[in-house]
Specification:
This protein is an alpha+beta fold and 140 residues long. The chain contains three helices and four strands. The longest helix has 23 residues.
């Protein structure tokens, strides 16, 4: 197992929302980022991109958490407050929604959840310092 200090923070490339289940290591816990792009996108993720609308974390499976977001955002069912906020704010079908993930694979279970929650908060803070506020759907 790695020390958290040795973990390289590298997100996947952006994937269209409809293709989210094809992301590598999506079964692991970790961080996920959602962005809306109206035009061309860079494949590589810029954590301060103003198109980012939500930064989230899960200590279970990213795939499961994205499924909860999908149910809330596009079907109006509870289970994900960010998904409900998405529905309220955008009320669309996600045709311009993209996702990138950072699965936490090689870290001891007794500290994995601490690292994931720390990293999510750090990414949100860095985003807010760069852009003047947190992403539009991050309320907490």
């Amino acid at each position: 197992m790695n020390s958290y200090k040795s973990i390289k923070i590298k997100f996947s490339d952006w994937h269209f929302w409809g293709d989210k289940n094809n992301l590598n290591n999506i079964e692991y816990p970790g961080i996920y980022i959602l962005a809306k792009f109206k035009s061309s996108i860079s494949k590589e993720v810029d954590l301060n991109d103003k198109n980012i609308v939500y930064i989230g974390e899960t200590c279970s499976s990213i795939k499961k958490r994205l499924r909860q977001f999908n149910r809330s955002a596009f079907k109006g069912l509870g289970g994900h407050s960010g998904g409900m906020s998405y529905r309220k704010h955008f009320n669309d079908k996600g045709n311009d929604l993209y996702v990138a993930i950072f699965p936490v694979v090689d870290l001891a279970d007794n500290v994995k959840h601490l690292f994931i929650r720390y990293l999510e908060r750090k990414i949100i803070l860095d985003y807010a310092l760069k852009n003047g506020s947190q992403p539009i759907l991050n309320k907490k």
